[in-house]
Amino acid sequence: MLENVVEFFKNLPDKHCAKCGEKIEEQSECYSNTCHHCESL
Ligand SMILES: [Zn+2]
């Protein structure tokens, strides 16, 4: 079962910050399109 979860996340497209284009590692909540650096600005 754990492998299925891993495969699920591996198949997700990389999310990139809408402001700086940095890859967003955190997949927590999809409420933002910006990385934590830009969010705090
Ligand atoms: Zn950013």
TrEMBL record:
<dbReference type="Pfam" id="PF14149">
    <property type="entry name" value="YhfH"/>
</dbReference>
<protein>
    <submittedName>
        <fullName>Protein YhfH</fullName>
    </submittedName>
</protein>
<dbReference type="InterPro" id="IPR025432">
    <property type="entry name" value="YhfH-like"/>
</dbReference>
